[in-house]
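Let us practice reading a record.
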Amino acid sequence: MERKVAYSTLAEWFEYLNDDCDYENWSQYLINRLSAYRLGTGLDVGCGGGYFTRAFQRAGYEMTGMDVSLEMLDRAQSAALKAGLRGEYIHGDVAGKKIARKYSFATAINDCINYVEPQRLFKAFKNVYGCLSKDGVFLFDISSPKKFAEKLNGAVNLDDREDITYFSFTRFDGRQAVLDVSLFVKKADGSYTRHDETHVQYAHTEEEILEALRQAGFAKVSVEGHLGEEKTQSDRLVFLAEK
């Protein structure tokens, strides 16, 4: 069966299948991290289905969601309309063309930066730096190399539900992780339709991220683990970079 690009089908089911991520607590942590700054407009890079974009909007920020996946943007727009939230959603690659508008802050949450190839990190950060207004901040996270090596390499994941079954297998070579995903979606007659996707992510070290941020122009950067954990004990590193 032909394998499609990442989030071709998974976009529709992504938030549903990740309902154990404690999105509410996660988004509140991010909002708290931004509360020390005088911010108004934000760009949510790699917004996916838009959960965090909507959370920032509810916290009073004017948001634009951006993603490379059109399917994800469709989900984000639909969810925002359903929630009665008005925001802009744009199709774009953070490591591609310059971002036209200016924002007081940018975010890239839940592994967005892990999808950026190592040789394109500087361009991605330079584009974010260029779209920030004076004293703007960039809040983002990555899955750590430790997570890729110890928890994802060779991992098989299965989530079997009444309406969908999710199956994935991850291969990791020390730098690149290839995630083969299969979705079995239940139809009205009780039969299933199979959809296959391939996801490619990259393990970036803290030092590589810090160097790329420095080269892009960010002057001050703090790093901690997920939800404020000690970073050496966390599967996720959270960076807050100030322009």
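A brief commentary: The radius of gyration is 18 Å.
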